[in-house]
Here is the input.
Amino acid sequence: VQLVESGGGLVQAGGSLRLSCAASGYTFSIEAMGWYRQAPGKQRELVARITSPGGSTNYADSVKGRFTISRDNAKNTMYLQMNSLKPEDTAVYYCNADVWYPEQSNYWGQGTQVTVSS
Here is the structure.
Protein backbone atom coordinates (compact mmCIF):
# COMPACT_ATOMS: atom_id res chain seq x y z
CA VAL A 1 0.00 0.00 0.00
CA GLN A 2 1.24 3.46 -0.91
CA LEU A 3 0.00 6.57 0.89
CA VAL A 4 0.28 10.14 -0.39
CA GLU A 5 -0.76 13.11 1.76
CA SER A 6 -1.74 16.55 0.52
CA GLY A 7 -3.45 19.67 1.78
CA GLY A 8 -0.98 21.03 4.30
CA GLY A 9 0.05 24.65 4.42
CA LEU A 10 0.18 27.86 6.42
CA VAL A 11 -2.97 29.15 8.10
CA GLN A 12 -3.79 31.69 10.77
CA ALA A 13 -5.07 30.63 14.17
CA GLY A 14 -8.79 29.98 14.02
CA GLY A 15 -8.62 28.94 10.39
CA SER A 16 -9.27 25.60 8.70
CA LEU A 17 -7.45 23.11 6.52
CA ARG A 18 -8.39 19.77 5.02
CA LEU A 19 -5.77 17.09 4.63
CA SER A 20 -6.14 14.22 2.19
CA CYS A 21 -4.44 10.84 2.06
CA ALA A 22 -4.74 8.87 -1.16
CA ALA A 23 -4.11 5.15 -0.89
CA SER A 24 -3.09 2.83 -3.72
CA GLY A 25 -2.06 -0.79 -4.04
CA TYR A 26 -3.79 -3.47 -1.94
CA THR A 27 -6.36 -1.02 -0.61
CA PHE A 28 -8.91 -3.80 -0.11
CA SER A 29 -6.76 -5.04 2.77
CA ILE A 30 -6.79 -1.80 4.77
CA GLU A 31 -8.22 -2.46 8.25
CA ALA A 32 -7.79 1.01 9.67
CA MET A 33 -6.27 4.35 8.77
CA GLY A 34 -5.11 7.20 10.89
CA TRP A 35 -3.54 10.61 11.08
CA TYR A 36 -0.51 11.20 13.27
CA ARG A 37 1.52 14.34 13.82
CA GLN A 38 4.99 15.20 14.98
CA ALA A 39 6.03 18.63 16.15
CA PRO A 40 9.71 19.62 16.40
CA GLY A 41 11.34 18.03 19.42
CA LYS A 42 8.27 15.95 20.24
CA GLN A 43 7.23 12.36 19.72
CA ARG A 44 4.84 11.39 16.96
CA GLU A 45 1.30 11.22 18.32
CA LEU A 46 -2.04 9.88 17.17
CA VAL A 47 -4.47 12.56 16.05
CA ALA A 48 -7.39 10.51 14.76
CA ARG A 49 -8.13 7.02 13.51
CA ILE A 50 -10.90 5.39 11.49
CA THR A 51 -11.59 1.68 10.98
CA SER A 52 -12.66 -0.02 7.77
CA PRO A 53 -15.28 -0.89 6.81
CA GLY A 54 -17.11 -0.01 10.01
CA GLY A 55 -15.98 3.59 10.11
CA SER A 56 -15.50 3.75 13.87
CA THR A 57 -13.45 6.77 14.86
CA ASN A 58 -11.36 7.93 17.78
CA TYR A 59 -9.59 11.21 18.42
CA ALA A 60 -6.87 12.64 20.60
CA ASP A 61 -8.39 14.72 23.39
CA SER A 62 -6.56 17.79 22.10
CA VAL A 63 -8.46 17.77 18.79
CA LYS A 64 -11.92 16.51 19.81
CA GLY A 65 -14.63 18.83 18.58
CA ARG A 66 -12.27 20.58 16.15
CA PHE A 67 -11.03 17.84 13.81
CA THR A 68 -13.06 15.31 11.83
CA ILE A 69 -11.66 12.19 10.16
CA SER A 70 -13.49 10.56 7.27
CA ARG A 71 -13.00 8.14 4.38
CA ASP A 72 -14.26 7.94 0.81
CA ASN A 73 -13.88 4.25 0.04
CA ALA A 74 -14.77 4.72 -3.62
CA LYS A 75 -11.81 7.08 -3.98
CA ASN A 76 -9.54 5.20 -1.54
CA THR A 77 -8.96 8.50 0.18
CA MET A 78 -8.99 9.54 3.82
CA TYR A 79 -9.50 13.10 5.00
CA LEU A 80 -8.85 15.18 8.07
CA GLN A 81 -10.94 18.32 8.35
CA MET A 82 -9.23 20.64 10.80
CA ASN A 83 -11.17 23.61 12.15
CA SER A 84 -10.40 26.21 14.81
CA LEU A 85 -6.71 25.58 14.33
CA LYS A 86 -4.30 26.59 17.07
CA PRO A 87 -0.55 27.30 16.95
CA GLU A 88 0.00 24.11 18.95
CA ASP A 89 -1.45 22.14 16.01
CA THR A 90 1.68 23.03 14.03
CA ALA A 91 3.40 19.79 13.03
CA VAL A 92 4.12 17.42 10.19
CA TYR A 93 1.01 15.31 9.69
CA TYR A 94 1.40 11.70 8.59
CA CYS A 95 -1.09 9.26 7.11
CA ASN A 96 -0.95 5.69 8.41
CA ALA A 97 -2.62 2.43 7.37
CA ASP A 98 -2.91 -1.04 8.91
CA VAL A 99 -3.28 -3.81 6.32
CA TRP A 100 -3.71 -7.59 6.45
CA TYR A 101 -2.59 -8.59 2.92
CA PRO A 102 -0.18 -10.00 1.90
CA GLU A 103 0.74 -9.93 5.59
CA GLN A 104 -0.12 -7.86 8.63
CA SER A 105 1.76 -4.60 8.05
CA ASN A 106 1.74 -0.90 8.79
CA TYR A 107 2.44 1.83 6.24
CA TRP A 108 3.24 5.54 6.44
CA GLY A 109 2.96 8.43 4.04
CA GLN A 110 5.71 10.99 3.55
CA GLY A 111 4.02 13.65 5.66
CA THR A 112 2.63 17.11 5.02
CA GLN A 113 3.52 20.26 6.96
CA VAL A 114 0.81 22.20 8.78
CA THR A 115 1.82 25.55 10.23
CA VAL A 116 -0.60 27.66 12.28
CA SER A 117 0.44 31.24 12.93
CA SER A 118 -0.75 33.19 15.95
The chain has a mean pLDDT of 96. The radius of gyration is 14 Å.
